[in-house]
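Dear colleague,

Thank you for sharing your sequence with our group. We've completed the structure prediction you requested, and as agreed, I am returning the results in plain text so they can be pasted directly into your records. Please verify that the sequence below matches your submission; if there's any discrepancy, let me know and we will rerun it promptly.
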Amino acid sequence: MEDWSAFIERHPLIKNGFEFEVMNLMREVMAHTITFYLLDAPGQVARFVRKHVALIARLPKKELAAYLNLSLEALSRLKKRGEI
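Please find the predicted structure tokens below.
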């Protein structure tokens, strides 16, 4: 960690880029967490589909369910209703 800290202090452009990326990631983590509290399961799925269209066909349903904190059965029911 000391080496990383020294490196980042010697390279201000990299430091600024790194801090910017960390802030973006933290914003995404907060948005994801808030989604769990504000949206029901269909809303969570709709948000994911809207934000990550390219991943829907490639992501295993088991992984998607885990990411959305849903059971595989609940995700399957949403799929049958045409919400995915």
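Summary note from our side: Residues 1-38 form one domain.

Kind regards,
the structure core
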